[in-house]
Write a structure and sequence with these properties.
Order of helices and strands: EHHEHEHEHHEEH
Number of helices: 7
Number of domains: 1
CATH superfamily: Decaprenyl diphosphate synthase-like
Oligomer: single chain
Strand content: 5-15%
Largest sheet: 6 strands, parallel
CATH topology: Undecaprenyl pyrophosphate synthetase
Length: about 250
């Protein structure tokens, strides 16, 4: 994957020590709306507006991949009218941001199960993935209908099918990584969670084994580039040992 020159970094951030892949659990839309006595869908609408600033900022400063957790398999259990409104909002977002993806030379990738999503949404996802497949500035991964455990189940099913055709296949970490939804995208260096919740919510269970975790009380609709830079600055202060000991 090509790395682009960083632009517009604030003072105190080392351009040579940027996280390559940032993953974000976008949490707090409902609480944002409740604070303002608005319907929950208005929180989700405000959250979708916050996405563009973070996507464009990550691309501008040289991040290689950004993965946003937008809709989990567990979210289907929410009230039907909220789910339908979320799907409408997602469809509108894909229409609106199609040009943003292409204009910024981003490579779009859906992470999750397509089964269960509306056909119009799948068609828009497929078109954006297809038309951006040669872009090389940054992977923009959107986790939709996603569950970390479901991803591992689907991964092992794919491997079993391969084994049926070749009994000599050796299952190792690389093979598992190559059969995940995120195949081809390096593991996250930094995991950000908004709204202050202290859990990973079944997100990228395999991939975040050695990710640095940064949690903020800021609700997702209020999350700005300045908060992203705070997370990156904190990340750069940490010593990453990956289980070893540095001399």
């Amino acid at each position: 994957m090509l790395r682009k020159k960083t632009r517009g970094l604030p003072a105190g951030i080392d351009p040579d020590h940027m996280p390559r892949h940032i993953a974000v659990i976008m949490d707090g839309n409902g609480r944002w709306a409740k604070k303002r006595r608005l319907p929950r869908i208005e929180g989700h609408r405000a959250g979708s507006r916050a996405v563009r600033e973070i996507v464009e900022t990550c691309a501008r400063v040289g991040v290689s991949a950004l993965t946003l957790f937008a809709f989990s398999t567990e979210n289907w259990s929410r009230p039907k009218d909220e789910v339908e409104a979320l799907m409408d909002l997602l469809s509108q977002y894909l229409d609106k941001e199609y040009k943003t993806v292409l204009d910024n030379n981003l490579r779009f990738k859906m992470v999750g199960r397509r089964e269960g999503l509306r056909k119009d949404i799948i068609d828009k996802i497929d078109k954006t993935e297809r038309d951006s497949a040669q872009n090389d500035r940054m992977f923009f991964c959107l986790a939709l209908n996603y569950s970390g455990r479901a991803e591992l189940v689907d991964c092992f099913r794919k491997i079993l099918n391969e084994i049926k055709n070749d009994r000599n296949i050796i299952i190792d970490e690389k093979m598992i990584a190559d059969n995940l939804y995120t195949a081809g995208v390096e593991d996250p260096d930094l995991l950000i969670r908004t709204s202050g919740e202290m859990r990973i919510s079944n997100f990228l269970l395999w991939q975040i084994a050695y990710s640095e975790i940064w949690i903020t009380e800021v609700l997702w609709p209020d999350f700005k580039a300045k908060h992203l830079f705070q997370a990156i600055k904190d990340y750069q202060k940490r010593e990453r040992r990956f289980g070893g000991i540095k001399e």
